[in-house]
Automatic annotation (TrEMBL):
InterPro entries: NnrU_dom
Source organism of this protein record: Noviherbaspirillum suwonense
Listed name of the protein: Uncharacterized membrane protein
Keyword set, alphabetical order: Membrane, Transmembrane, Transmembrane helix
Domain named NnrU: residues: 3-190
Amino acid sequence: MAILILGLVIFLGVHSIRIFADDWRSAQIGKHGELAWKIGYAVLSIAGFVLLLRGFGQARLDTTALWNPPAALRHLSALLILAAFVLLAATYVPRNSFKARLHHPMVIGVALWALAHLLANRTLADALLFGGFLAWSVASLMAARRRDRIAGTRYPAGAMGGTLAAVAIGIVAWAAFAFWLHERWIGVRPFG
């Protein structure tokens, strides 16, 4: 469990700098340059992610249940994750209505992904991993919206083509992950 916690602290800590220390981040970029910042950020993120994956893999061996989710929550979880994949796609597809209205679809998608996994899973490792990501995504969204208000950020209006593309890409990615990749990479069949 310690490796999982260390991985979460490093990975989410690095990703929380804009939430809790945005001025410090700007000062470091000014002092060392954007490339040096990005390299350091990437190295720490990858190290944290590797520890997080390794720690979660080890912690999952303890199957002591904190609670027993009803079967219906698996269906709700699948729908939430489908929405999360659409929002993830909307992060990168230009001129879509999701980005125009929500402004930060990726962190909202992460929140949905984490919530879905909290609903459908039951161990302490699940609670730490997905609860950590849920808390981070809520804090990140609040900080991003605050930065947008201060900066007066305006997002371009969405277009039907971009919105449909985000939905289509999200559905295809969700289906590929749900029916094939999740079992291969995670070892769990969501629908089996």
